[in-house]
Write a structure and sequence with these properties.
single chain; alpha/beta; Protein-Tyrosine Phosphatase, Chain A; 2 domains; 6-stranded mixed beta sheet; 15 strands
């Protein structure tokens, strides 16, 4: 009880300080939300605009009712350390009282966990630009809401909070995102990866010609990133992202470029900045694995739509035995079993081997085999996986020890799971250079490493 009271008091003080900082320095605010792609879009926006402005972004995923104020005052999460929290409060006071050089722009990632979260944040935060990335038919945290639609409506409150002279940037390829075009009178910019003008709703920025880039290493063709063409107005330019895979990074770049063009910035310079953009750990990162294998590390979190994107990226890759290492998808409530089975059916189409981690992940196996609760109907016209190619484990430690022996040269290993499944521990055990794990993987700070 005492700990909860302390937490509430600290959160209130940090919030008051954040409000006063905004009032004093009046930075322009870019707020990013969605079910998928918030963090990567936030980071890409920062990478693109930092070439032009003094800008600050949310650290890691500080996107909650306490994380957003912490970003505004420029302090880290103190977790359970009262000394860090006292230091944060003092730094906030100094920022308010003393003259300081403060960022002209803030890129804030805004997430929600339960009903009312977005309404609470928008009661005091009024963005100049809102970016809505992608929504999911079955989003993470849906078990805390009455329906997936309720999650979408909660996230959509950010669009309604944009300043009257602001800009709303929407993914035109997502019908649920596009629907929010009608709830704001602010200027709207649409982006799309669909070149058909009729189906992309006349998007302002359009991507095409997506491809995976490769280089030869030890006699193997190794993926290095992605490339695509961007068309905007009468300009057409190539865009390249190194170190990560997946069509979702096309949308990440489109979001960043949309923010840039909304401010009249040079498109070529924006694209050039993105080519040096360091994609965040745990989000489709290409890593060197043991025995000259390739690891596709997507272990930050998992949801149905994010997993579908990861499996599509795995399907795009040429050569090599493809292994999908998948942990439970959590917080899906009543949708959990069916969503795991549906994803499993897709695994059977794109992977040679399936490794499951956790109790819920066993339904991946059912889907891959084409059995159980509608799984057979889903897989009627799809490839089914042989039972001998599916191996199930209770936890990440068991999976890691098995894979150390199982992996061989040329294998491509996709690793993904919800945060609590700690699938990054499997990735760490398979790294060719584990000494760099602190920089390469998610959840490597002391507090996470101590957790079981």
């Amino acid at each position: 009880m005492t700990k909860k009271i302390f937490k509430k008091i600290i959160a209130y003080i940090i919030l008051v300080e954040a409000k006063l900082v905004l009032k004093k320095y009046k930075p322009k605010i870019i707020a990013v939300t969605g079910s998928v792609g918030k963090t990567t879009s936030k980071d890409a926006i920062y990478a693109a605009l930092s070439q032009f402005y003094f800008i600050r972004k949310s650290l890691k995923t500080l996107n909650t009712d306490i994380g957003v104020p912490l970003t505004i005052i420029g302090c880290p999460n103190g977790w359970s350390n009262p000394f860090v929290w006292m230091k944060n409060i003092l730094e906030g006071i100094a920022l308010i009282i003393l003259p300081n050089v403060y960022p002209k722009w803030l890129v804030l990632e805004i997430g929600i966990d339960k009903p009312g979260d977005m309404e609470y944040i928008t009661s005091w935060l009024k963005p100049d630009i809102v970016v809505l990335t992608r929504l999911s038919k079955v989003p993470v945290h849906v078990e805390f809401f009455s329906s997936p639609q309720a999650v979408m409506e909660e996230k959509g409150k950010l669009v309604k909070a944009v300043k009257p002279n602001g800009v709303v940037i929407l993914n035109a390829d997502d019908e649920d995102v596009l629907a929010f075009r009608g709830v704001t009178k602010a200027r709207t910019i649409l982006f799309s990866a669909d070149t058909d003008h009729d189906t992309n709703h006349g998007a302002d920025l359009v991507a095409s010609n997506y491809a995976v880039t490769y280089e030869e290493k030890a006699g193997e063709q190794v993926p290095t990133g992605i490339t695509f063409r961007l068309d905007y107005d009468s300009t057409s330019i190539p865009v390249t992202i190194y170190g990560s895979l997946g069509h979702q990074y096309v949308y990440t770049c489109l979001a960043a470029l949309s923010v840039g063009v909304s401010q009249g910035l040079n498109l070529v310079k924006l694209a050039s900045a993105l080519s040096s953009y360091e994609t965040p750990p745990g989000r489709m990162k290409i890593l060197e694995g043991i025995k000259n294998s390739i690891l596709i590390d997507d272990t930050y979190n998992s949801s149905p739509v994010a997993l579908a994107s990861a499996l599509d990226a795995l399907a795009d890759l040429k050569s090599g035995r493809k292994i999908a290492v998948l942990g439970d998808m959590l917080e899906l409530g009543k949708y959990s079993t069916e969503e795991h089975r549906t994803a499993g059916a897709r695994v059977a189409e794109v992977a040679d081997v399936l490794i499951t981690i956790g109790v819920r992940a066993r339904f991946f196996a059912e889907g891959a085999l084409g059995v159980g609760g509608g799984g057979e109907a889903r897989a009627t016209h799809a490839k089914k996986m042989k039972e001998k190619n599916i191996i199930k484990f209770e936890d990440s430690k068991q999976a890691k020890e098995f894979l150390k022996k199982f992996i061989k040269k040329g294998d491509i290993v996709l690793l993904k799971g919800s945060q609590s499944m700690r699938v990054e521990r499997v990735t760490e055990g398979l790294l060719a250079h584990p000494e760099y794990s602190v920089d390469l993987l998610v959840r490597q700070d002391k507090d996470w490493l101590k957790r079981q």
